[in-house]
Amino acid sequence: MARIVFVMQSGDRLPLMRTYSAGIPGKQAVAEAIREFLELPPVEMEDGLAARI
């Protein structure tokens, strides 16, 4: 179970959705698209999951 969360420079966390759900690969693709749109650098992965997106 996972969800996409925006982590602000202040450290505040803003979830894209309120609930957690299955389907990590789909969430990873969405997070990568958001990072690309915002022109943010790639994220280092830990055990197949992004530590910070």
Question: How would you summarize this macromolecular structure in one to three sentences?
Answer:
The protein has 1 helix and 4 strands. It has 53 residues and is of the alpha+beta class.
Percentage of residues assigned to helices: 25-40%
- Strand residues, percent: 15-25%
Mean pLDDT: 84
Rg, please? 11 Å
Largest sheet: 2 strands, antiparallel
Order of helices and strands: EEHEE
Considering the chains and any ligands shown, give keywords for the structure.
alpha+beta; 4 strands; 53 residues; two-stranded antiparallel ribbon; single chain; 1 helix; two-stranded antiparallel sheet; globular; 26% helix
Walkthrough of the structure:
There is one protein chain. With 53 residues, this protein is of the alpha+beta class. Helices cover 26% and strands 19% of the residues. It is built from 1 helix and 4 strands, in the order ββαββ. The chain has one helix spanning 24-37; strands at residues 5-7, 13-15, 45-46, 49-50. The strands form 2 sheets. It has a two-stranded antiparallel sheet. It has a two-stranded antiparallel ribbon with strand order 3-4. A hairpin with a 5-residue loop joins strand 1 and strand 2 (13-15). It is globular and about 25 Å long. The two termini are 16 Å apart. The model has no long low-confidence stretch (mean pLDDT 84).
